[in-house]
Structures are given as structure tokens and as C-alpha cells.
């Protein structure tokens, strides 16, 4: 794992943008994309650049069950607002949170990932160490699946909703096995709330109790963390 410590989210977004630009120069065509507060500045950097995405494909990590693009808390809405409206891609894939049959939808999303191998994946990290919506305890072998969100994730994400009761209880998420297949991974973490998870991810044992720790087991992972998120690291 390579670690880049930055002052703040703006600097982190710039570092992430540099890595993405290099990857695109080296032929990356399919991007794995994330939502949440973490990648917002990274997406700003993209929107304000002259990079062209018209020949690119994106595959998003996750979506809440029960929400579609017309709901301003859906990840589909988030992606349109922060990136796709300004930078059109050839095609954008997100799980369909309103699918009539979720079992069919997860298989369909797996086939999309198989047909569009991810060259470059951006990740955030949850306070409990989740990546995508792969909560603690998720087996490393899973592909796309329906997740029952933990109390801690519901509480953490309640900041985006009017009431905690409005936070969906389930999501569809790319699995750890799918994430691990991507050729390059860049994980961003900002703020002291992420410091424990970052320490566990980088210096702790590899355990399903902290899903992001699986990233220790592979090459081509870069962590961009601000000083607060990196503050508990021993070296
Ligand atoms: O960036 P945030 O809002 O702290 O969220 C962290 C992580 O949680 C998720 O939003 C899922 O809860 C991920 O997509 C994200 O990487």
C-alpha cells in the first residue's frame, strides 16, 4: 500500500485527480466510482478539468434499496449532480435500487462488472471500515449483494437525511471480491472520525471485522488521507 498524507480534502482531491489523469493516459477506460462526502472534491477537480470522459465507462459501487435517481439522496442523483451532468461518459452503470427483483438485479450487476473490468477504482471508507457497503463480517468472496446496513452506518449517513428514520435500511453493493478485481485502487479518507478505521486498514490484522484491511493483501493500492485521518498511524 502506498500512503499519501495531505493537508485537507482539497489537496486530497488534487492528488486523486493526478492519479486518475495518469491512469487515463495509460489507457484506463473503466472507472469504479464511489459516493459519500469523501470524493466530492475529487469530482470537483474532474469537473473543472479538460479531461474527456466521452469514451469512458463508469461502474458505481452501491445504491440504496428503494431509492431511484429522482430521490436527491440516491447515489444515482449524487453522481449526476457531482459528475455526470458536467462530464458525460459513454455509459454509466449503477445498481438499480428500485429493481422489482433484487436477486435478479445483483446477478445483472455482476454481469455488468464482468463485462466491464474496472481499471481504476476510487473508494471511501466507513467509520467501521466498510468499503462500498461491505459491512464488518462480510466474507471476502462475495460479489454484488443486498446488504442490511449496520446501525453505525445508518447513524453515520443520517447526516445527509432530514430524519434518521429516512435512511434506507438496505443497499445493493458491489462485493469485496469484485472490488479486489479492479487493477488499481485509490482509497481516500478524511477527518478524525476515520482515524481508527485507517489505522486498522493499514496497520491492523487482515480481518473481515474491518473490511478495508483486505486491501493489505494486494498491490496497486494508494491511500490518500488527511492528517487527521492518518493521525493514529504509528509510522
Ligand atoms: O465519504 P463518507 O460520506 O464518509 O462515506 C464513506 C463511505 O460510506 C459510503 O457512503 C457508504 O456508506 C461509501 O460509499 C463511502 O465510501
Automatic annotation (TrEMBL):
GO terms for cellular component: cytoplasm. GO terms for biological process: carbohydrate metabolic process; glucosamine catabolic process; N-acetylglucosamine catabolic process; N-acetylneuraminate catabolic process. One of its GO terms (molecular function) is glucosamine-6-phosphate deaminase activity. It is an enzyme of class 3 (hydrolase). Its EC number is 3.5.99.6. Pathway: Amino-sugar metabolism; N-acetylneuraminate degradation; D-fructose 6-phosphate from N-acetylneuraminate: step 5/5. Gene3D superfamilies: 3.40.50.1360. The active site is at residues 62, 128, 130, 135. Residues 22-222 form the Glucosamine/galactosamine-6-phosphate isomerase domain. It catalyses: alpha-D-glucosamine 6-phosphate + H2O = beta-D-fructose 6-phosphate + NH4(+). Keywords: Carbohydrate metabolism, Hydrolase. It holds the Pfam family Glucosamine_iso. Belongs to the glucosamine/galactosamine-6-phosphate isomerase family. NagB subfamily. Catalyzes the reversible isomerization-deamination of glucosamine 6-phosphate (GlcN6P) to form fructose 6-phosphate (Fru6P) and ammonium ion. HAMAP family: GlcN6P_deamin. PANTHER family: GLUCOSAMINE-6-PHOSPHATE ISOMERASE. This is Glucosamine-6-phosphate deaminase. The gene is nagB.
Amino acid at each position: 500500500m502506498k500512503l499519501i498524507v495531505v493537508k485537507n480534502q482539497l489537496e486530497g482531491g488534487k492528488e486523486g485527480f493526478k492519479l486518475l489523469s495518469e491512469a487515463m493516459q495509460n489507457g484506463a477506460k473503466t472507472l469504479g466510482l464511489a459516493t459519500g462526502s469523501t470524493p466530492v472534491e475529487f469530482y470537483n477537480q474532474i469537473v473543472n478539468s479538460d479531461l474527456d470522459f466521452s469514451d469512458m465507462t463508469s461502474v458505481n459501487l452501491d445504491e440504496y434499496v428503494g431509492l431511484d435517481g429522482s430521490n436527491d439522496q440516491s447515489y444515482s442523483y449524487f453522481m449526476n449532480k457531482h459528475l455526470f451532468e458536467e462530464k458525460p461518459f459513454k455509459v454509466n452503470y449503477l445498481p438499480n435500487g428500485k429493481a422489482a427483483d433484487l436477486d435478479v438485479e445483483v446477478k445483472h450487476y455482476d454481469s455488468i462488472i464482468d463485462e466491464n473490468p474496472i481499471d481504476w477504482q476510487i473508494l471511501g471508507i466507513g467509520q467501521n471500515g466498510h468499503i462500498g457497503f461491505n459491512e464488518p463480517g462480510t466474507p471476502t468472496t462475495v460479489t454484488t449483494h443486498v446488504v442490511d446496513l449496520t446501525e453505525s452506518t445508518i447513524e453515520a449517513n443520517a447526516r445527509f437525511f432530514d430524519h434518521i428514520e429516512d435512511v434506507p435500511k438496505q443497499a445493493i453493493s458491489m462485493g469485496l471480491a469484485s472490488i479486489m478485481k479492479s487493477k488499481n485502487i485509490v482509497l481516500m479518507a478524511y477527518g478524525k472520525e476515520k482515524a481508527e478505521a485507517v489505522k486498522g486498514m493499514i496497520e491492523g490484522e487482515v480481518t473481515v471485522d474491518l473490511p478495508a484491511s483486505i486491501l493489505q493483501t494486494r498491490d496497486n493500492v494508494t491511500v490518500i488521507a488527511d492528517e487527521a485521518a492518518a493521525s493514529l498511524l504509528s509510522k
